[in-house]
Design goal:
Blueprint (H helix, E strand, L loop, with lengths): L6 H5 L20 H17 L2 H9 L5 H8 L6 E3 L22 E8 L2 E8 L10 H17 L3 E5 L10 H17 L5 E5 L2 E3 L1 H8 L2 E5 L4 E3 L3 H8 L5 H5 L1 H8 L4 E3 L2 H13 L25 H4 L10 H8 L5 E4 L7 E8 L2 E8 L10 H16 L4 E7 L6 H5 L2 H14 L4 E10 H6 L9 E4 L4 E3 L3 H8 L1 H6 L3 H16 L4 H4 L5 E2 L5 H12 L17
Parallel strand pairs: 3-4, 4-5, 5-7, 6-8, 7-9, 12-13, 13-14, 14-15, 14-16, 15-17
Antiparallel strand pairs: 1-2, 2-3, 10-11, 11-12
Length: 544
């Protein structure tokens, strides 16, 4: 659907239902025509709701739940489940207000012809707050998604638990969390934040695979600005506390942030086109219209020979993948590592790459956690992994050590060691120390370890190594700097030449950068039927 479609155009389609037949005086037997008329009126009331509430939603620049579903799913494909559900709660005036749907639209449809389940909070009804009946509808559609083996997308615009229903509402959230967890790694789960979501409404998205947000209309927080002000005295807006850019760039809760709902939902559709329906299937292939034998000549220009010079790893990814098209995950958070979904010869791949343009591509706490979760996702859903390595090491510093770089960096190590999908690593330039080992090296189980002739695989850079190994000799020399430079060259010649790792079987081949795409495609084709079993266990205990 075009982004030019305005909320005014959608609003003009609203229908104000006539009174239902059973609310009018009726004499004698009900005819089939009257019953059908009543059903039609009830369905209209359930679908369109209160026209004034719809106007208020549009006045905020927001679409209704049904309008959002129309944008997400293929045209005319949506089938609604339990549109006539109403709550049974009493007290605080609830018995006098029992709208159809109880504030959430649930059902299924298709995206690019493949089945997708969806639920969407309707902010017009109780502010999208969750009650017992509301939760029961979500539980049902989540169970259906798992049974059918199809992705689940939630369109979130809810104010948390319905206070008037008390603990019953809270229990409803518990059921959602339990189902999120059981569905994890079984079907893709995508959360789209389209309004203010607080408390329990923020926890469920955090359990899902991907979180999308829209600037100016999406917020997520456990306690809102009023509670923060009352407890800490801090003054902050909803956007400042939990807006799209905060979660996309600072907290890492959101994987994607967009300026408008149309672009956001179109990107959700694109993401779904790259994912399998469930963990028993392979990702859907696409027609291979970019030649598998295309040479990647530009890589010689894009990556400088000098290991101290920076470049944008995304330009390397663009040169390698089909038509330069990829979807970057978490583009604004932990920018020193790039995680992306793309295609090689029509087949979906997950790419993890160090980014020399940001902090020289070092691994730190955030980058390790970002890459670890991406690797785990790809492994869960049968997406092969390609790792592009240009890493000078882990980021040193008191802050990093005190905040747990050891255990949090180990998350990435654990994720790679545990992954059974096809794995290929490629060293472009630097690959130093423990960071090289962590970036899917041969020693932790990558299927194929490749390198360019510009690779420098070592414990550390030549300068640092010479300073440690020859420190006494350098200190005793008449010209320490001259001796130091000589020892640096000796170390480079002895232990850092491009074929050192290949000679020892730690790199399978040193390849011409211009053949990178060809080699990756042939290697992934060879690995397509790879099968690897994990040890028999209930589950591992990854570092936290």
């Amino acid at each position: 659907m075009s982004n030019e479609k305005s909320t005014t155009q959608i609003k003009d389609r609203a229908v104000t239902p006539r009174p239902r037949l059973h609310e009018r005086e009726h004499r004698g037997h009900w005819t089939a025509a009257e019953r059908l008329e009543e059903l039609s009126l009830i369905k209209q009331a359930a679908r369109h709701g209160d026209p004034l509430a719809t106007e208020r939603q549009h006045a905020k620049g927001k679409l209704t739940a049904h309008e959002r579903i129309q944008l997400l799913l293929d045209e005319g494909s949506f089938t609604e489940v339990e549109p006539l559900r109403r709550h049974r709660a009493t007290g605080f005036g609830l018995e006098d207000k029992r709208p159809y749907t109880d504030g959430v639209i649930t059902g299924w449809g298709t995206v690019h012809g493949r089945t997708v389940f969806v639920y969407a909070h309707d902010f017009r009804i109780f502010g999208g707050a969750l009650g017992e009946a509301h939760a029961a509808k979500i539980h049902k559609i989540m169970d259906m998604a798992v049974s059918a083996g199809a992705p689940l997308v939630s369109l979130n615009d809810g104010a948390g638990a319905r206070i008037q229903e008390g603990v019953s509402a809270l229990a409803g959230y518990g059921g959602i969390f339990q189902r999120n967890t059981r569905a994890s790694g079984v079907i893709p789960q995508i959360s789209v934040m389209l309004g203010p979501c607080a408390g329990g409404a923020a926890y469920s998205p955090a359990l899902t695979d991907f979180v999308f947000m829209v600037r100016d209309i999406s917020q997520m927080f456990i306690t809102g600005p009023d509670v923060v002000r009352a407890v800490t005295g801090e003054e902050i807006s909803q956007d400042g506390l939990g807006g799209a850019d905060v979660h996309a760039g600072t907290s890492g809760v959101a994987h994607f942030a967009y300026d408008d709902v149309y672009t956001c939902l179109e990107e959700v559709r694109y993401l779904l086109s790259l994912l399998p329906s469930n963990n028993r299937e392979l990702p859907p292939p696409a027609p291979a219209s970019d030649s598998a034998t295309r040479r990647t000549e530009r890589l010689l220009e894009l990556v400088p020979d000098d290991p101290q010079q920076v470049y944008d790893i995304r330009s390397v990814i663009e040169e390698i993948v089909d038509h330069g098209d990829y979807l970057e995950v978490h583009p604004a958070w932990a920018t020193n590592v790039v995680c992306a979904l793309s295609r090689l010869d029509g087949q979906v791949v997950g790419i993890v790459a160090n980014q020399p343009q940001s902090y020289a591509g070092v691994l730190d706490i955030d980058a390790s956690e970002k890459a670890a979760r991406f690797v785990q996702f790809c492994d869960a859903f049968n997406i092969p992994l390609v790792t592009l390595i240009d890493v000078p090491g882990f980021l040193p510093g008191v802050d990093q050590e005190h905040n747990g770089i050891i255990r949090r960096g180990a998350k990435l190590l654990y994720a790679y060691c545990n992954a059974t999908v096809p794995r290929i690593s490629l060293v472009l330039r630097k690959a130093y120390g423990g960071a090289y080992i962590v970036m899917d090296s041969r020693s932790i189980g990558t299927d194929l370890a490749l390198a360019w002739p510009s690779n420098e695989i070592a414990v550390m850079g030549a300068e640092g190594a010479a300073n440690v190994i020859f420190r006494r000799e350098i200190a005793a020399a008449d010209d320490p700097e001259a001796v130091r430079q000589q020892k640096i060259k000796e170390y480079q010649a002895e232990l850092m030449h491009p074929y050192y790792a290949a000679e020892r079987g730690l790199v399978d081949d040193v390849i011409d950068p211009r053949e990178t795409r060809q080699v990756l495609i042939r290697s992934l084709a060879m690995l397509r039927n790879k099968h690897a079993d994990l040890p028999s266990r209930k589950h591992g205990n990854p570092p936290q």
